Give the backbone structure.
Amino acid sequence: MDSSVHQLLVEAGTLLLVGMSFVFVFLTILIAAVHGITLFCKRFPEPATPHPSSAVPVVSQQNDAGQPSPQVVAAITAAIHQYRQTK
Amino acid sequence: MDSSVHQLLVEAGTLLLVGMSFVFVFLTILIAAVHGITLFCKRFPEPATPHPSSAVPVVSQQNDAGQPSPQVVAAITAAIHQYRQTK
Amino acid sequence: MDSSVHQLLVEAGTLLLVGMSFVFVFLTILIAAVHGITLFCKRFPEPATPHPSSAVPVVSQQNDAGQPSPQVVAAITAAIHQYRQTK
Amino acid sequence: MDKLTVLWQSTALAHFQGGQLIMMAVGLLLLYLAIVKKFEPLLLLPIGFGAILTNIPLAGFSEAGGILYYIYKVGIDTGVFPLLIFMGVGAMTDFGALIANPKMLLLGAAAQFGIFATLFGAILLNLVPGFEFTLTDASAIAIIGGADGPTAIFLASRLAPELLGAIAVAAYSYMALVPIIQPPIMKALTNEDERKIEMAQLRVVSRREKIIFPLAVLLLTILFLPAATPLVGMFCLGNLMKECGVVDRLSHTAQNELINIVTIFLGLAVGSKLSADQFLSVKTLGILALGAVAFSIGTAAGVIMAKIMSRFSQQPINPLVGAAGVSAVPMAARVVNKVGLEANPHNFLLMHAMGPNVAGVLGSAVAAGILLALVG
Amino acid sequence: MDKLTVLWQSTALAHFQGGQLIMMAVGLLLLYLAIVKKFEPLLLLPIGFGAILTNIPLAGFSEAGGILYYIYKVGIDTGVFPLLIFMGVGAMTDFGALIANPKMLLLGAAAQFGIFATLFGAILLNLVPGFEFTLTDASAIAIIGGADGPTAIFLASRLAPELLGAIAVAAYSYMALVPIIQPPIMKALTNEDERKIEMAQLRVVSRREKIIFPLAVLLLTILFLPAATPLVGMFCLGNLMKECGVVDRLSHTAQNELINIVTIFLGLAVGSKLSADQFLSVKTLGILALGAVAFSIGTAAGVIMAKIMSRFSQQPINPLVGAAGVSAVPMAARVVNKVGLEANPHNFLLMHAMGPNVAGVLGSAVAAGILLALVG
Amino acid sequence: MDKLTVLWQSTALAHFQGGQLIMMAVGLLLLYLAIVKKFEPLLLLPIGFGAILTNIPLAGFSEAGGILYYIYKVGIDTGVFPLLIFMGVGAMTDFGALIANPKMLLLGAAAQFGIFATLFGAILLNLVPGFEFTLTDASAIAIIGGADGPTAIFLASRLAPELLGAIAVAAYSYMALVPIIQPPIMKALTNEDERKIEMAQLRVVSRREKIIFPLAVLLLTILFLPAATPLVGMFCLGNLMKECGVVDRLSHTAQNELINIVTIFLGLAVGSKLSADQFLSVKTLGILALGAVAFSIGTAAGVIMAKIMSRFSQQPINPLVGAAGVSAVPMAARVVNKVGLEANPHNFLLMHAMGPNVAGVLGSAVAAGILLALVG
Ligand code: NA
Ligand code: NA
Ligand code: NA
């Protein structure tokens, strides 16, 4: 066997070992982190109704004119559905 | 007081005067311009129904596939109207 | 007549002949090609219902969950736009 | 007081040159045509606005570091913007009518006579003092006769960038004027009976034919005219994305967001070429005159070709549809339909005119390729 | 083992510097403000994320070849991104309320006092050891008082790129804090009776007035302040596209896809300037303090101007609307409406405040032009 | 006649080389796979089209000044396009299933064995005459085993640009072939009873968990593997925009218009690397063979890992879900679901397979980072 290939094989083998170990260690730490996140979110649960009221209102330089409210969209969608079926 | 700061303060003061004057003059001229535009538009009012007919039809290299048919739009508009009134 | 203009006119004339011939030859070959395509498609017609089922399912990295059809969206957007403007 | 002097020196009032004022008026005229007269507003509005911006003294929109400079460099100098527009146009084009009646391709070929004849005219104009068009200039001008914006901009950016502004303005203006330019020519070359001819309904074209068609066009272009493949290739890519049915999200983007973004930038970049020193020249008048000639000759050639074909064809051919061969999609086809209806209220030619109309797009892309190969 | 050493050397753990950790915390704080406190999330979320990315050791996001490097070079160094955002904002802005009551432009002028007074303050800060602001720096900082993100980023990128990160963060943060900063000032400068004043309903503005308005603004800017035409020109282009009614597809794209794409990139690029060596300086504290001062002075100047105008005007003017002159569209107008409703539950000032609000946008673009012309 | 000679010389007929014809056939094959067989059409259609364009003689699409040249330079050479795609994919990915059952991350880790084992195989191939893969080449090839398009293109563009075309084609082709490659391996490594195992329903994950998750992933990547932060960072940015709920317009754009535009360009640019001299080499055959090996080993490793975990876990784990660890989102998960249903018609594994499926995306981004850090 070519000696340079032999050397490359050794390097590839090392990469295989180091790489797989690292991937496993990394994702195992991530498992722990997810458990941590879950615990944190259980201990400090979200307020029951976070959306409607907050001290600082939703702010945006870009106005949102033309964006219909979800209720309106729902109503329209229903209306279209009805229209399509009765067509 | 540092002489260079002193000099900068004089420059800043000049900028303040010149800048605010310019802003006021500029926007005051714009006020006059808006009055002019309003007068112009009153004297030469838009034709009552500019949309439906014109000598040269609306032209576009890009076709308008995907634009909903007028009937669908009409139907939806009616539906929204109804929805709003019954709300 | 200026001799350089004369020469340019000869060149332009050649371009006119060569160019129009080429355009006609090219598009005539394309006519033949279209006839060929049509024959091919008649001989090997599409299966009657190509859309619903196929051996390999439609695949896409990008998901398409929750996307209403573009036409419906367009219709709604137009309707809302109209509604907002007539409000 | 020093600051006031600097401020005065930094107003435009102290620096305006006559040419810049005239070019701003030209820009305003283009805006007027776009907004009030609805002349190709998608292009002429940004072109007109760009023309105003580029002529502001001291603002440096089109000098190194200015926004129009960057847009021009990135999009037109490279040729990328017109090609992307052409991809989007391909994704909007339905070749069904042409595949159903492929003879119509001959009308798209005949109308290109407008291009090549104008080439002749541009050279002849050199006999008038003040004109000095090279063959390259003449080719870039002649493409106005193709009645196709992106093709004209692409070719002009390759052959005669300093004429680009005038050529693009002429191309889009005359495309908007098609309903005024074409009908007299169409009526002069046809009689009432010919205009009344009704054509047989077109067959339905299968999805597979529509998928293979752009590939066949590309293949022929590769074989016979590689110089046209940038234009034809991007056009066919767009059309294939539209017809294949498996990449609808890409096709939708090419037809909408991408073409819209590029259109804004393309218009501004073209407008940036409407500077006083390049546009305020007798050449511009020549270009405008030649453009009108090109459109007229193309229209006439299309109608005459249709009359010839009508004589040899078993199926009836209304010679009016030849006028749609100049492209100017979809306006020329609508004009054909309108003139046909005037002669015969039951004569709906729109679909029949769409065939030569889209053939004209291919025809002028081929003509552009020929000019690139032989003159460029 | 060799590989393990290389791998250890290629973890960040071996290379973190204190400043980078602090800047990552700053990035997380910005994300917190964006997501939980909903402070201008469209900008502060990508800015915060960009701040984290740019401070990762070894990753080289902002070094030659890194993605943030390219985005910054292409979009901010050239000034293109803030100008495109401004075009989109123009396409979202309705000048109807301002055209109906053009006197409100004076409120948009008065509120710019916040900018020029801050200029003074920035120079005075040089007396404090550790500060060394040049007049150029001071101008870039003062523009925070314009309460307008793209204008601030554009001017900072021209005058003081190394302060860009802090200036952009301050501008967007204070814009988000308008509901907290403004009401106390508004209440301190007005009495209950003034706040109860109801204003006459605005007349309907015709489409044609709205079309001519951006052209008139552009024309005046060209004549008197060419240095402001990049900002004002792109803004007016957007507004013209919106109002003219013939290029709706371009206007829609400018307001949606194009501005969204550019916003993501602009935010990341601004974040890339939040590197430890540039941001962790006493200058940043100065900038934050000056920004708050600028907003407060601008608000006060607007209210005082409104009180003065109220005295001379035939029609009643509620002095609260002056506070909307700082721009921060549409938040400042909403705040005016809210404070007005507190004093008088039937007093809907929103539409009346929109006039000075959009006037403030023009006012700060003009102020930016003055600073560019005199200091840049 | 002279013009005719020039015209003949400018047809492709006079200049075609054999390799170019073969590569055009390859391009047509890719179009066939995309359109008729529906193999990852969003990428393979533009790749196939780009392959045709780049091999046209005289057209110069990929030479300086050609459109594909510019697209490649701007988007791939800089690494920007795959990163933007990855941001969009992040904005489309729902980590809910993974957060509910984080053990599944181990399956995403195990499946990366396909990458590292292939590295070994690529080096071994050097023993066959005609192959000369360096360790850098081998790494770029091995990443095909990650079953993730943008990751593969990004890594190949960094490590082995001349192999990019073959690597991208192999990656997308095998991703499309997942329903054919995986089931036999899955069935060979499991028995009927194992395949029948039903898994416990997943709990609902709160919005806040989903917001913190991408930040935690980014934080860990920063600490331990900065080389992976370009990929992981952009992915997490997209995911954060999706989950945070305050920048929906940015998230929507990242998932739609932006990713669509970039996909068209990325595909064309990849196609531009399918030139005869780079693709028509025995290396390409090696890459295709190694890609198939990589997918198979990855699938097997995932299933075996799932079997091991099943033994130690209190809750039942169906070993089939391990196959989804290779990513190929969402196809591999669908295949798992299908094979599971064959064994037990009440066994819906789709949601359970989504966990390892998205874990596989993270796993291969991490693996790519390791290869960049140690080999690049
Ligand atoms: Na044409
Ligand atoms: Na302002
Ligand atoms: Na993977």
User: Anything to note?
Assistant: Residues F 146-148, 326-327, 360-361, 363-364 surround sodium ion (ligand 3) (CB under 6 Å). Residues 60 and 67 of chain C are 14 Å apart (CA to CA). Chain C is about 65% helix and 0% strand. The mean pLDDT of chain C is 68.
